[in-house]
Amino acid sequence: MYENLLTVKDLFVKYKSYWYVYHVLDGVSINVKLGEKVGLIGESGAGKTTLLKSILRVLPPQGKITNGEILYRDVNLLNCSKQQLLEIRRRKIGMIFQDPLAALNPVFKIKEQMLDIIKYAHENSGMNKRDLENIALDLLRDTLIPDPERVLNSYPFELSGGMRQRVVIAMALASARELLLADEPTTNIDVTIQAQILKLIMDLVKKKGLSMLLVSHALGMVRNMTDRIYVIYGGNIVEEAPTSKLFKDPLHPYTRLLIDSAPKILSSTLGEGIKGNPVDYRHPPSGCRFHPRCPFCDQEICRRAKPPLIEVDRDRYVSCYLYGGGT
Hints:
Layout: E1 4-16, E2 21-33, E3 37-41, H1 48-56, E4 63-72, E5 75-76, H2 82-91, E6 93-96, H3 100-103, H4 110-121, H5 129-142, H6 148-152, H7 161-175, E7 179-183, H8 191-208, E8 211-216, H9 219-225, E9 228-233, E10 236-242, H10 243-248, H11 253-261, H12 300-304, E11 310-313, E12 316-318
Parallel strand pairs: 3-8, 3-9, 6-7, 7-8
Antiparallel strand pairs: 1-2, 1-4, 4-5, 9-10, 10-12, 11-12
Helix pairs in contact: 4-5, 4-7, 5-7, 7-8
């Protein structure tokens, strides 16, 4: 038995365009334990989706992993055989993508797309087409879709946003037998059914005994669905803590500002947001990538050297010179 199901160590990812190189992930390290629900929060463009796609090795052609390790149990996904990688994709890890319209092919019916994934996940099982259809119907029923037979024979554009997202969840569950990666699972869904989708995901994760890595910038969602949280800014992990501790007492200046800027139901004013501009990955700042926006940056070392992620309390880590680590 392995304590960590997934371990990402010192991961660097860059993207190349015609003119520029974008240095996105800058030494990211995270882990997900067996049965654990982990959150990854940060602003849009912080590198959250890039990290998830790196884990599954589905980065776009212009993206490249330049250094690091991604361990699934004891298998390094960056240098394992193609067969090992395919086996883990088939039977171990499933992913709910951010945009269901982009995840579904508009010219094929849901049945064709689901059966392809189920057949892929049950390769060499000897199942016939009827068996695969029954599994597809069961997966749709698991996501509480009414009239799954009709949905199975529909095109994506014939379904509502909520229905499409449920289909994407069902497809992810076809291969997620140990770990579910959820990338902003309610981004394109009407606010009136977001709570239903979140409850559905949590119920299915619990029912199937899955570990989960949930990526979002919706803080309330992550607070209610996770045991532990990583905070990412500009491709760097800046804080790690149990969920309850992080929201009760955020340590890193970015985490404090991120939580303070979230809309409050009982507040009469809107959050001001975080002043300054996000990281320009073409020319990221030296030292701490948050220092140009940090209200506490008054040390030369913040501009000169990247702060290490140090343990400041039990199960609490922060990457900031306010808490030591300077040289």
